[in-house]
Structure formats: C-alpha cells, structure tokens
UniProtKB/TrEMBL annotation:
Region of interest (Disordered), ranges: 1-49, 700-719, 759-808
Annotated protein name in UniProt: Integral membrane protein
Biased composition (Basic and acidic residues): 35-49, 700-711, 770-808
Origin organism lineage: Bacteria, Bacillati, Actinomycetota, Actinomycetes, Kitasatosporales
Membrane spanning stretches: 71-89, 101-121, 167-184, 232-253, 265-286, 306-324, 344-363, 375-397, 427-448, 493-511, 531-554
Originating species: Streptomyces iconiensis
Matches recorded under InterPro entries: AB_hydrolase_fold (IPR029058)
Gene3D superfamilies found in the cross-reference section: alpha/beta hydrolase
Keywords of the record: Membrane, Transmembrane, Transmembrane helix
Domain of life: Bacteria
Length: 808
C-alpha cells in the first residue's frame, strides 16, 4: 500500500489519488483516509495488485482550515509564536537542569503574554472608556451608550456614575475575554488533541531508554494533564489581572484624604489575597508537568478547578469593593497604566535575555551543525512573540483612544478630550517605523543577493540541459527560481535582526517613558527642530501603523470568515505554526498533529498487523513529510520494518532540523534512518521549502549512498521537444509526482521491502541506530555537510538514476 499525506494548504482526495471517484475508508469529516472506488476492496483481490500498490490518501486539511470561526485564531498569533520557542531549544548533552530552566523561561514569557493581552483589554475598558471618557463631560457628550454611567457636572449622575461602579461594570469586558480564551482552549482540546495515541510497550529499564528520540515516546502527542494545568493557570492569571486593576484603583482612593479606613483595610486584604493567588499561578506554571514516556491521562482536578475559581471569586470581591458607595470619588487623569505596561516590558526583555543565555549554554555543550542562530533561535522567536503582543495591545489601545478623542489625537495637544493610552505604549508604537526601515534595508540586501546569484547561475542552468537551444529569458527564469528558493536559508538573519532591533528599541521606549514621562513629541519639544520633527514624525507614523496593524488583523479575520480562499491561506499559517503540542501556552491554536499523528500511526499499525507480509510506503509531501516521520517514530520496531518512507519537498532538515535541533537534529534523523528498512527523499533546487535531509551512508559503503535523491530536474524540459511540445512549468514545491523519478523510487522502496521480507536482499540491512551517550549529537559529527548541488548536476541525477538509489 502507498499511504499519501499532503502538505500545507491541503488537498482533496480526488487530487491526491488522481480519480474523481473516491470513498472514505476510515475517519470522519475532519480527517480521514480515502481510496479510489475501484480499490475499496483491494484486500479481497490480492492477485490484481501483485505488481502495484494500493493508493490511499490521508486528508487532514480540515484540521487547520475548516470553518470560518477559525479566523478568530489570528488573535492567538503571539501565543502560537511563543509556543514554537519552547520546541526550538538546542540539542543538549546531559544538561537536564538547563533544559528545565529553558522550558521554565519560555512558560514565563508565555504567561506574561496572557497578562499583557488582558491588561490591554483592561486599559481599553477600565481606563479609556469607564475612567477617562465616562468621567469627562467633553468625551461623554454625544455618546448615548455612555449616558447611563457618565459623570454629570458637579457630582450629578445616576447610580453607575461613581468611578468604582463604572469600573466594575467595565470589568465585564476583560473577564469575558479571559472566558473566551479559556473556552477556545478547552473546546479545541476536545476536538483536536484528545485522540488516544497508539499504545506500545515501553521498557523503562532499558539502558538506552534515555536516548530514544522524543517523538518516538508514547505520550509525546498527548499532553492532556500539562495543557489542563496551564489552561487553569493562565485563566486564573487573566482574572487576577482584572481583580488587581479594580482593587488597586479603589484602594488608591481609600488610602487618600477622605477615604474610608474600613474599605482601605478590606482593599489591602484583598490585594494580599490577589498576590497570594498570583504566586500559586506562577508556581503551577513553573512546575514541570509534561510527561512523555507514557500517555498522561491523569488530570489535577483540584488545580484545574480551584485556581480559576479562586481568581473569579477575588475578581467578584474586587468589583463589590469598588462598587461601594463613595460619593466624593471623582475620576481625573488616567489610571496607572505606564507602570503596568512598563513592568511587563522590562520583565519580558529580561526573560528573553535569560533565555538567550541558556540557549547559548546548551548549544556550546555540543554544537550541532546548521543549528539556527547557534542556540539563540528560541530567544529571538520569543522576542517576536512579545513584539506581536505589543502590536496587538498597543494597537487596540491607540485605535480606541483616537476613536474616543474625536477630532483630536488621544492625549496629545490642547484639543485632546482624554489623557489617552499609557505613554509607554506610545513610545513602543514610535519604534515601529524604525523597525520597518531596518527590515526594508535587509529586504533590499536579500533582493540584491537574489539578483546577483541568479546572474551567476545562468551558465550553470544552461549546462544542466545539454543540447537545448539557448533561451535567455527561460534561463533567467530558472536561475531566478533557484536563487529565490535559497532565500529560505537566510531566514535566521531576518529573525535575528528583527528580534535584536525590537529588544534594543523596546528598552529605549521604556527608558524614555521613565525619564521623561511624556510622549516622544512632547519630550523632544526643547530639542533642535530636526530632532523634534523626527520625534513627531515617528510618533505619528507609529500610532497610525500600530492601529493599522490591529485593524489588519480584524479585517483579515472578517475576510477569512466570508472568503474560503482567504480561510485556506490562514490555514497554511497554522499548518506550519501549530505542528507542535501546546507546551508553553495553552491558549495557542490547537496542535493538529495530536490528531493526525495518531491517525497515521493507527492506520499503519492496524493495516500491517493483519498480515505479516504486507508492505507499506508512507509518502509525505512538504508538511506531510513531518507528519509521516512523526507517525513512523510512533510505531514499534517490528512494524517499522514493514514500512518504507518516501519524502519529497520535505522541510525535515532544512527547516525542522535547523530550527528544532533537539527533535529533528542529525542524530534524530539518523536514528529514524537506522530504524527503517529504507527511506528516500526527493528535492529540487527550485523548492523554497523542501531540501535534502543530509543523511549519508558514505562511512559504510555496504549500506548504499545517501538517502537523498536530487536535485531533480525542474523544469523537466528546457524548451520544446518532440515528447513535450509545450513549455514545461517550473514546479518548485509542487507536483513531485509529475517527475518520472517519483514512480521509480516508490517502486524501488516496495521492492526493497519485499526482498527484505523474503530474506533475499542483495545488500545487507543497516542495523538499528545505536544511541550514544549524547542522544542529540550527530552519530557522525566528523562528516562534512553536503552542499546544495549545482544545477549542472541535475541532468546526471536524472540520466543515471541508479546513482541515487539508496538501500535505506
């Protein structure tokens, strides 16, 4: 059997199987295995399939790009990015404490993002609307929806006009946002990540147990207990943020002139309880709870129920305390948002720096070749998550502030009706133009490199098609496709630049707020004209850009709800970003692999278990190759010997191996290679995503050449030929099945499996990978890296296919 797994963007069973008539074999409307109608009962007619495989298609696209409600997941983008940072840790060598600290720091960054998002909602609802706008006659006039709680002149107004009662009512908005995040996380867990993994015996007493690849552990794709604990902690953190905002405001009034000592004492007691509950939240987040050696089905009921319950109770008490009658309480100015957002910015910067230090220490223990940013990738990605969180929080505050301020710019100028959002958010928005200038300069540099590289490749492209009539335009297009595909390998530079500039300028924003207490344009009022003009320009541009970024999220989400093509584009983002389980942030979009990997593992195990002579090739394209590899890792060794792996357009080494070295590094892929009977990987120079897996058997000639077969010809023909009279397209990342090499390699894998089962293999099988003391280090660190082959070698790969045949 050939089990096909599609890649990003999804595909239909009809497209994968090349037949309009297909039937579902097993599965549901979310993810299922399909066959052609004529192959539905192929097992009953084995004589008809003696020389060809039975094709099956596993379609999982609805896990990421189904109904329009998933457009709401765009708001969860910072949570998804910080969750990726958890899995990007460098490979380690007996540094268990450092690994735990690395995970702890990422979880703390994730917790700060939850607090940041809820603080932004509190800023909008409590400060801008209930405190500033409803408390000022100029802003409240003309807004009928604020009339019932607007403060009238000289203390007149309704029951809701007292500041504490206005704040208590407005607190329903951040409380609802926290509830929505909890509901989304709980609902998606039930729908996507609650599938039981394939059960298999694990000998924990085996001396090599600690050296097993993590993705082979039975509980890797089932983190029910861990996600439940984190969900409870983050939900409690959201409600505690609301409670702290309410209690701090009312307590600040009660301890001032005219305040009530009794209410002041109650408020301080409430603050002590809020701090104690916050300490419990941090303790739950810091406690290591993820268990992978076995499926952890136990749930800490006390923690999951008591912690959010206590936080909700404190929020209600804070609202009741603030609603108590205080007739002399008037709202003026703004709530202390600068302190809150400033502390969060400093905390996030400190955690990111600490994460970078731990990443460098782990990398220096035993460097793994081609690791992205030499161990700094988790810190850089976590910084990007914080930047995205800042854009969302600052964007919503700035847009709402400008909307409430009417014709003025919130907090700026004499026409301002309200004090506006916190000053630190304005400073942070002002760094966005500078950041974009840096990104633009880097993009120009990349564009120049593409142009220069494409010019250098023209001769090589022409040499790769001997006998073809030269065509300058055709040559430029092929060379340009190769040059642009190479940009993927430069992605770490872009990520590092954006993260470093964001960290530095973010520190400048906090420092500027602390020293001046004014927005950039006002702080530069006494400076030379060029400095003052520059400050005013970046402030205006930053305010507009941060608001535009927030509106872009909303517009894209609305379009995705209505437009299936836009919904599919958003689904592609989640295909790449939600492969990993939710280990750092429980409010991240759901992990589709926790459904897809068990599906594939169960299908392969059940099909091969019925008859020991059955052979199976699992064929994965693009992201499907990562799912296929993860599913093969989940099989027991006996079943694995009945399975061959065919990958094409695969990011296993080029993206996953570089960015997630602890899970897809050289030693991990080498272990997978050794455990399989055979594995072949097809790739093209024009492919911007897929590439070679760089597993060489050159150290042992008896076991054949590399796993990789490529680079394949793309396009298959340079110009018009008798066999191909119309121009052949540059396929890049798509349609690998169109290459004749695909069928030959698949048939070769099946033949090798058959020969191995019959004991007639002409080449001895490679023994299973022996795990060394360093499970994350490459088994052969002294081998030089294979370079990306030049275009002139592609024709040779096609003309002599036996040179690329691997024994696996």
């Amino acid at each position: 059997m050939e089990l096909l797994v599609h890649g990003v963007g999804g595909s239909t069973p009809q497209e994968m199987l090349g037949d309009p008539r297909t039937e579902r074999v097993t599965g549901d409307t979310t993810a299922a295995v399909h066959r052609r109608t004529e192959d539905k009962d192929a097992e009953r007619r084995p004589e008809e399939y003696a020389d060809k495989p039975v094709p099956e298609a596993y379609c999982w696209s609805n896990l990421t790009s189904g109904n329009g409600a998933r457009a709401l997941w765009l708001i969860l983008l910072p949570f998804m990015v910080v969750n990726l940072a958890h899995w990007m840790r460098p490979a380690s060598h007996n540094r268990h404490t450092a690994v735990r600290v690395h995970g702890l720091l990422v979880r703390l960054v994730a917790l700060s993002l939850t607090v940041l998002l809820i603080s932004a909602v509190c800023e909008v609802a409590l400060d801008l609307i209930a405190w500033q706008c409803a408390g000022g006659s100029a802003c409240a006039d003309g807004r009928s929806w604020l009339a019932f709680m607007a403060a009238g002149p000289e203390g007149t107004g309704g029951w809701w006009s007292q500041p504490g009662r206005r704040l208590a009512l407005a607190a329903l908005l951040p409380a609802a946002a926290t509830t929505l995040l909890w509901w989304l996380s709980h609902r998606t867990w039930s729908a996507y990540e609650s599938q039981p993994p394939l059960e298999k015996a694990v000998n924990e007493d085996d001396p090599a147990a600690d050296g097993r690849p993590p993705l082979s552990l039975p509980g890797f794709w089932y983190g029910r207990r861990h996600v439940a604990r984190l969900r409870a902690a983050h939900t409690a953190a959201g409600f505690l943020t609301v409670a702290a905002a309410l209690a701090a405001t009312s307590t600040r009034h009660d301890r001032g002139p005219g305040g009530s000592p009794v209410l002041d004492l109650f408020g301080w007691g409430l603050m002590v309880l809020i701090v104690a509950c916050a300490v419990c939240v941090v303790h739950v987040v810091c406690r290591r709870a993820r268990k992978e050696s076995t499926p952890d089905r136990h749930v800490d009921t006390l923690t999951v129920r008591a912690l959010p319950g206590a936080a909700i109770a404190l929020t209600v008490l804070a609202a009741v305390h603030g609603s108590w009658n205080r007739p002399d309480w008037k709202s003026a100015g703004s709530l202390p948002g600068d302190e809150t957002f400033g502390v969060l910015a400093v905390l996030q910067g400190t955690l990111v720096v600490a994460l970078g230090v731990v990443g460098l220490l782990l990398y220096r223990t035993r460097p793994v070749p081609r690791t992205a940013l030499t161990g700094l990738a988790p810190a850089a990605v976590a910084m990007l998550a914080c930047a995205l969180g800042g854009v969302l929080s600052g964007g919503v505050a700035q847009r709402v502030g400008d909307w409430l301020d009417g014709p003025g710019t919130s907090g700026v100028g004499k026409e301002a009706q309200i004090a506006g959002p916190p000053t630190v958010l304005t400073w942070q928005a002002s760094i966005i133009p500078l950041l974009l200038v840096g990104v633009l300069l880097l993009a120009c540099w990349f564009g120049f490199r593409v142009w220069r590289t494409s010019r250098k490749l023209t001769d090589d492209v022409q040499a790769g098609y001997p006998g073809a009539l030269p065509d300058e335009g055709r040559t430029r297009r092929i060379a340009g496709a190769v040059a642009r595909a190479g940009l993927t390998d430069q992605a770490p530079w872009l990520v590092a630049t954006v993260a470093a500039v964001t960290l530095v300028l973010g520190g400048v924003a906090v420092l500027g707020t602390t020293l001046t207490g004014k927005v950039p344009s006002e702080a530069a009022a006494g400076a030379p004209d060029i400095v003052a003009g520059f400050a005013g320009t970046v402030q205006a541009l930053g305010s507009w850009m941060v608001g535009f970024g927030f509106l872009l999220f909303l517009t894209w989400g609305r379009r995705a709800y209505r437009d299936p093509s836009a919904r599919r584009t958003i689904g592609i983002l989640w295909d790449v970003g939600t492969f990993w389980p939710r280990s750092a942030h429980p409010f991240a979009p759901p992990c589709y692999a926790e459904r897809a990997v068990p599906d594939l593992a169960w299908r392969m195990a059940m099909w091969t278990d019925k008859e020991p002579d059955r052979r199976l090739v699992i064929s994965g394209h693009s992201q499907g190759s990562a799912l296929a590899a993860a599913a093969v890792w989940q099989l027991d060794p006996r079943t694995r010997r009945q399975v061959a792996l065919l990958t094409y357009g695969s990011p296993l080494e080029r993206l996953y191996g570089r960015w997630f070295p602890a899970y897809f590094g050289p030693s991990r892929l080498s272990a997978l290679h050794g455990d399989l009977e055979c594995w072949r990987n097809l790739w093209r120079l024009t492919d911007p995503i897929g590439g070679p897996v760089r597993l060489s058997c050159a150290h042992d000639p008896e076991h054949g050449p590399d796993v990789d077969r490529g680079p394949l010809l793309d396009p298959l023909a340079y110009g018009r030929t008798r066999e191909q009279p119309l121009p052949e397209p540059i396929l890049a990342h798509s349609d690998y099945q169109a290459d004749p090499v695909f069928d030959s390699e698949r048939d070769g894998l099946l033949a090798r499996l058959k020969a191995a089962r019959e004991g007639l293999a002409g080449v001895p099988h490679q023994p299973p990978h022996q795990h060394s003391d360093d499970p994350d280090h490459s088994a052969h660190p002294d081998h030089p890296e294979p370079e990306r082959a030049a275009p002139e070698k592609r024709e040779g790969a096609r003309a002599h296919p036996e040179r690329g045949r691997s024994s696996g």
